[in-house]
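ok trying again, last paste got cut off:
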Amino acid sequence: MTAVRQPRLTVVEYLAYDLAHEGRHEFYNGEVVAMAGGSEAHALVTINLAAALRGALASSGCRVYSGDLRVRTEEHGAFVYPDLTVVCGPSVLLPTTPPTLTNPRLVAEVLSPSTAAHDRGAKAANYRRIVSLSAYVLVDIAERRVEALHRAEDGVWRLAEAQGDAELDLTPLGIRLKLADIWAGLEDVVEDGG
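nice, full thing came through this time. structure:
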């Protein structure tokens, strides 16, 4: 039996597909990837991270957005739905339906076993191509560890990590996050790694 290769979509075809179908669909190199729902632990940690970021950024003029805001990672590249996005200053949106953000300052992904390799690999590489991006945060529920890639002033990406109940330094945004706030309530959830 021979596998039939699916034709690659154009950006215009993807945007129409995403609008016409329920759920969220990411787009990579002409291929559409349906985004599955997250676990209870994933949902809790995501909202906790959003609250921690929002509190830390309260007087900064930055805004925290949920995973419903689509982001374009490069001029002719991927369209993704990060778990969280931070924008500082005015949003720059493509006139798509729904609108697509092009200038995130921070994106965050809460890892799950099925997406961790992609989030650390190809997705991270795509995010680092966004000129406005200064931090990419990865939250590993199973390890209770948070990693942040920061773009330094010299343009080089550097890694900062924190684990357990430590604090994570998000230097580009001038804030620190208490990991205990991110894990709050997790002891009441059946942990499945994300």
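cool. The longest helix spans residues 40-56. The first strand starts at residue 25 and ends at 28.
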